[in-house]
Structure formats: structure tokens, C-alpha cells
């Protein structure tokens, strides 16, 4: 039986309709947290919620597009009214975009990618900062990629967005560390069997990769043992 060390805590996981986000939401719920799960796909979120409830956990679905104006503010307002605090924020939602040379990046798609991968995460931090500060131990975990630190040909757009995400979240960590019990960590899941990974490497045998549940278990362990702000965890295959 999973230790319910997150009992009474509220967690928000973005991009929780499938893959790492869904697995993380289910793992946090198994550890006792009430999990707010958000993504654009309502039916897929409902399936995740059903699995959480079937396992004895607790969850609330919030289908929304994080890039839509005011959607995040509305979610934060609803969370404040219902729970008054937020203990765990997992910034997982992201889009891959086309893998293409920097000189050929489509401006419109790049704008959409940056809006979701960077601007939406800044808006999440901004809107949930008051609730994180009200927690006895607010924790933020931002999901990144190795290409955010090690540039790779054709990955310029996605890599730039992850580099920006890391800088943004770690700057926030520095800003709050002496003012509130909020800590921030970076998680690089490495090669994981997800739909996004399948798009990036269409010929790869995903049976050779670790499942999303392995990443979710790492998130739970990070929270169970706790971490110092600025902590970075890189998972291998």
C-alpha cells in the first residue's frame, strides 16, 4: 500500500490527460493528495479521474486550454475559493512543435509553442503564487528536457522553450526562498514512452523505454524525501 504522506494536500498537474502528466496525477492521488488535473481533452481527463477514483483516490478535472486568455486566472480563482491553498504544482503541459532547422522555424507555430511552454507556465506561477505561499510547504516541479541545456540540431524551438522554462522557474525559486516556504525543482524525465516521444522518434521501439509511471514515481519520491530549492533530477532510460 502506498504511504499516504500527501493526505490533506492539494496538487495541480498540467498536461494530465495522458503520459507523464496522467501517471503523475495518479501517483500523487495514491499518495493521498487531492489532485486537480487539467488538459484540453475532457474525455481523456475523465478517464484519468475514473482511474484515480477506482483506486480510492480523489481528483477534480479542469478541462481548459492553458493558452486561452484568463483560463488560468479562472482556475486559480476557483481553487482559492474551494481549497484556499495549493501544496504541489507540477508544470508538465508542453507541445513539441516541428523539429526543423532554426532558419526554417515557422513563426506562428513558434509563437504557439512559446505561449504554452513558457508564457502559460509563468501565468500558472503568477496566479497560484498566493496559494503556494499559503501552504506550509508549497512545492513546484517543472518538467524539462535535456535539449534545454544541451542544444541539438533541429530541436531549437522546443529546446529554447525548455531553457526559458528552467530560467523562469529557478528565478522564481530565488525570489521566494527567503519569503515563503516554497521550493522549486527541475525534473528531466529522459527517454520515456510517451506520445510526444513517439512523434519525435517515430522509428523508436517504445518497449525499450521506461514507462511514464517511472517518472511519476520519481516525482512522488522527490516530494516524500523533499528537496532543496533549485534541485535538478535527471532520469536516464
Give me a quick take on this structure.
The chain has helices at residues 19-30, 42-54, 71-82, 107-134, 156-176, 195-200, 212-225, and strands spanning 10-14, 34-39, 58-63, 88-91, 139-143, 183-188, 231-234.
Describe this structure in words.
The chain is α/β, with parallel strands linked by helices and 237 residues long. It has one domain: NAD(P)-binding Rossmann-like Domain (Rossmann fold), CATH 3.40.50. Helices cover 45% and strands 15% of the residues. The chain has helices at residues 19-30, 42-54, 71-82, 107-134, 156-176, 195-200, 212-225; strands at residues 10-14, 34-39, 58-63, 88-91, 139-143, 183-188, 231-234. Strands 3-2-1-4-5-6-7 form a 7-stranded parallel β-sheet, with helices on both faces. Strand 5 (139-143), helix 5 and strand 6 (183-188) form a beta-alpha-beta unit. Helix 3 (71-82) runs parallel beside helix 4. It is globular, with a radius of gyration of 17 Å. The two termini are 26 Å apart. The mean pLDDT is 95.
Number of β-strand runs: 7
- The overall number of domains is 1
How much is the average pLDDT? 95
Helical residues, percent? 40-55%
What is the molecular shape? globular
Rg is: 17 Å
Low-confidence stretches: none
Major β-sheet strand ordering: 3-2-1-4-5-6-7
- Specify the number of helices: 7
Structural class, from secondary structure content? Answer: alpha/beta
CATH homologous superfamily assignment: NAD(P)-binding Rossmann-like Domain
CATH level-1 class: Alpha Beta
Any guess at the CATH architecture?
3-Layer(aba) Sandwich
H-E order: EHEHEHEHEHEHHE
Sheet with the most strands? 7 strands, parallel
Amino acid at each position: 500500500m502506498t504511504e499516504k504522506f500527501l493526505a490533506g494536500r492539494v496538487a495541480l498537474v498540467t498536461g494530465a490527460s495522458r503520459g507523464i502528466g496522467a501517471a503523475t496525477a495518479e501517483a500523487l492521488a495514491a499518495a493521498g493528495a487531492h489532485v486537480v488535473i487539467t488538459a484540453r481533452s475532457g474525455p481523456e481527463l475523465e478517464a484519468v479521474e475514473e482511474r484515480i477514483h477506482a483506486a480510492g483516490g480523489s481528483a477534480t478535472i479542469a478541462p481548459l486550454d492553458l493558452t486561452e486568455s484568463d483560463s488560468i486566472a479562472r482556475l486559480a480563482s476557483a481553487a482559492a475559493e474551494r481549497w484556499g491553498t495549493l501544496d504541489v504544482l507540477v508544470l508538465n503541459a508542453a507541445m513539441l512543435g516541428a523539429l526543423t532547422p532554426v532558419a526554417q522555424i515557422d513563426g506562428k507555430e513558434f509563437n504557439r509553442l512559446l505561449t504554452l511552454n513558457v508564457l502559460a507556465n509563468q501565468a500558472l506561477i503568477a496566479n497560484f503564487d498566493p496559494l503556494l505561499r499559503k501552504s506550509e510547504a508549497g512545492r513546484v516541479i517543472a518538467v524539462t528536457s535535456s535539449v534545454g541545456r544541451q542544444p541539438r540540431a533541429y530541436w531549437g524551438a522546443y529546446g529554447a522553450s525548455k531553457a526559458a522554462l528552467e530560467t523562469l522557474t529557478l528565478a522564481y525559486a530565488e525570489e521566494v526562498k527567503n519569503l515563503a516556504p516554497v521550493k522549486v525543482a527541475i525534473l528531466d524525465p529522459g527517454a520515456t514512452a510517451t506520445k510526444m516521444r513517439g512523434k519525435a522518434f517515430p522509428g523508436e521501439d517504445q518497449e525499450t523505454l521506461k514507462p511514464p509511471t517511472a517518472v511519476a514515481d520519481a516525482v512522488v519520491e522527490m516530494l516524500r524525501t523533499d528537496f532543496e530549492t533549485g534541485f535538478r533530477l535527471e532520469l536516464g532510460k
